Amino acid sequence: MSNAPVRATRRGWRITPWLFLLVPLVLLVTFTYVPVANMFWYSTTDWNGISKVKSSVGLDNYVEFFTRPELFRVFWVSLYYLAASVVQIALALYFATILSFRTRFKNLFKGILFFPYLINGVAISFIFLFFFQPGGTLDTLIGLFGVPQESMPLWLGDPSIINFSLAGTSIWRYLGLNFVLFLGAIQSIPPHLYEAAELDGAGRWSQFRYIIAPSIKPIISLSFILAVSGSLAVFEIPFIMTDGANGSTTFVIQTIKTAFESNKVGLASAMAVVLLVIVLLVTWLQRRLVPEEEVELS
Predict the structure, then answer these.
(1) Which residue has the higher pLDDT, 182 or 197?
(2) What is the DSSP string of 55-124?
(3) Is residue 47 part of a domain?
(4) What is the reported pTM?
């Protein structure tokens, strides 16, 4: 009996997975890698976004970026959002741990915590515009404790507190995402580990420290990476609520304004490349400092 049909069948099985991957790979290359390659190219030109002529300027855009403090200084605003992300991760981990045990109305609390993430970011921005406006919801709530209206700060008008207000909005907006990630990871832990720990007299804190935390370490690591990259790429909330006014300009807002208001697409592309390199570097450092481990708890 000839082996030709067998070889043809095996060859067909080798090709089949690539056929299924063909369409997603084409879309990925077309809408991700090709634009990124173009961005690198634009960063070495003086293109204004309108002209058909793109003259090469080498690394001049990168030199201009690092020698203009007003362009590089906006990175400091990201520290507010990074601190907010740490608070957000801590709160999400706390609520996920509490609601993974037997708690009354746990499903109701799960829905309440996740609901803000389902709301459109534009809608959230307008909600908090009314929340922070003078005489708005926040001032009314504080006024219930006897604080006079004239003593209320300008939550979105004072440069010293505006980024705290916007970062607080970000916490409320994205808390549900980390909460669901942590909750799903915690619920995947085998129940018999909790039963054995309870028989040994371990309390909730000991169960969290020796069972939950080691089990969900990869998810915590992922959340940290998302927090760093997200704090560097904040755009939606400060752009809609303040348009970067009063010292709330983020790096992405500055990049957008450089490209479309100053018509310096080449310089804006260089800024985007710098942001991409920073995110990749932080991710690499995180992987080196906190390598993934195989956790065996059974």
Answers:
(1) 182
(2) -B-TTHHHHHHHH-HHHHGGGGHHHHHHHHHHHHHHHHHHHHHHHHS--TTHHHHHHHHHHHHHS-HHHH
(3) no
(4) 0.82
